[in-house]
Amino acid sequence: MLEKGKISAVQLAVLMYPTILATGFLLLPSITAKYAGNDLWIATLLASVSGFVAIFAAYRLHKLYPEYTVIEYGEQILGRVLGKIVGFVFVIFYLHTTGVIAREYAQFVVGSFFFRTPMIFVICSMILLCAVAVRGGVELVARSAQILTPVFILPLAMLLLLIPDLDVRNIFPVLEHGFVPVLQGAATPQAWFSEYFLISFFLPFLAKGQKGAKWSTISLSAAVASLLFTNLIVYFLFGEDTATKNYPVLIAFRYISLAEFIENLEAVLLAAWVIGSFIKIAVFYYAAALSAGQWLNLSDYRPVVLPLGILIVAFSYWDLPNFPQLAKFLSTTGPFYILTTQAAIPLLLLLVAVLRKRKRRPKGASAP
Fold it and tell me: Residue 322, by phi and psi: left (phi above 0), alpha (psi -120 to 50) or beta?
């Protein structure tokens, strides 16, 4: 086993919460509102189904192969050749997705705050920091999340300061245009929630693996509730204009003013964004490094961490020349790309694994 560290189920839950919401808070409200309009809250609830499916697939596969990650049991399920192909798909997916996440982070930081800072510097500094965490192992990544996640959650409470400016009537009438726009609006957030399949890289390292599904479900429920809260606050504030804003939560923070004393809280949001992005990039980076090490049959994944960081920086620019192209990818191709890798392939692996287990079971033996 390439990783010797151990984490608790609670640490896994805390780790996954910002991994899903770090980019979700800023990007998903406008993308969801673009299609679902005032029914974005229904789309958010509907999108959570993919998260529960991802957790179910990851945990059931873990029960069948308790000491292995998806890269390792993929070969046991599909055979060496086909398993290697599927494993390579996961390696490339996590490398590319880590690059896209780094680009999302840098685009926000440079486009909203540090206008004259070269984007390559912002990306490289974050990747270098995450590389240090990933080389430290699963325990370092988990403990970092455990310490930093409370700071990441802080801006949620600050949104309550907008209550005097909110108009609840903005979400009515419900389902005015039918259910199809809701389904379209749910496509992107359900891709985000399907990323809970990442727990498959951490379940083998839980001190008490039987609690993994429970705490992962709690984490997902908290993520859904948090995103639902954010979406409603933003839509109560902006109404139909939510769909026209790139970062509606950032603009909402600029509206916060309490007694003309508590104002200009964008710096708090920036701090939360940096922390959340660090955790999210570190988790995806760790999955990419561990996947590559297992796919290459190495005795230790750490030697490939820095070389993979160079590839991640390259992927952060690959086919994404500007923000409109990035936004188009995230709202069109991206959701299907993520869902295929984080939900469809795991469910297929689970189906094949269950069928193979049943075929091998002696006649008269009871099901486990």
Answer: beta
C-alpha dist (Å) from residue 38 to 25, 169, 183, 205, 364: 17, 10, 13, 42, 55
Check the CA dihedral 96-105-157-284 and report its sign.
Answer: positive
- 9-355: CATH homologous superfamily? Amino acid/polyamine transporter I (1.20.1740.10)
Query: In sequence order, what are the beta bridge partners of 206?
Result: 7
What contacts 331, CB < 8 A, 6 or more positions away? 31, 34, 188
Flag whether pLDDT at 91 surpasses 90.
Answer: yes
pTM higher than the cut 0.70: yes
**What 3-state class would DSSP assign to 319?**
coil
CA distances from 166 to 117, 162, 196, 230, 256 (A): 35, 7, 32, 12, 12
- The residues spanned by each domain of the chain are 9-355
Range of lowest pLDDT (225-229, 234-238, 265-269, 309-313): 265-269
Residue 129 has pLDDT above 90, yes or no: yes
